[in-house]
Amino acid sequence: MKYLVLLIPCVIALWVPFFNTAEPALGGVPFFYWFQIVMIPGSVVFIWIAAKIEGSDL
User: Fold this and answer.
1) How many domains does the structure of the chain reveal?
2) pTM of the model
3) How confident is the model over 12-50, as pLDDT tens digits?
4) Which residues are within 8 A (CB) of 6 and not within 5 positions of it... i.e. 6 or more apart?
């Protein structure tokens, strides 16, 4: 189960046609760039969830 949770951000980050666009821009920054920046804390959340499923003390 934890591996499926860890697979979600990997698939999203590697599925380039999903975020290969300039719109919608956020503060003048194209979607391609700010989506990658948002993926960092998003991936951290998925890693934390996987650790909780495993029973780790994170």
Assistant:
1) 1
2) 0.74
3) 888 888 777 778 888 888 888 888 899 999 999 999 999
4) 46, 47, 50
- The Cα 22–Cα 25 span in angstroms is 6
HSE of 21, CA atoms in CB hemisphere, 13 A: 8
29 DSSP assignment: B
Structural domain for 24, as ranges: 2-54
**Number of neighbouring beta carbons within 10 Å of residue 35:** 19
Q: Can you list the alpha helix ranges (DSSP code H) found in the chain?
A: 2-14, 16-19, 31-54
Question: Over 70: is that where the pLDDT of 57 sits?
Answer: no
pLDDT score recorded for residue 25: 81
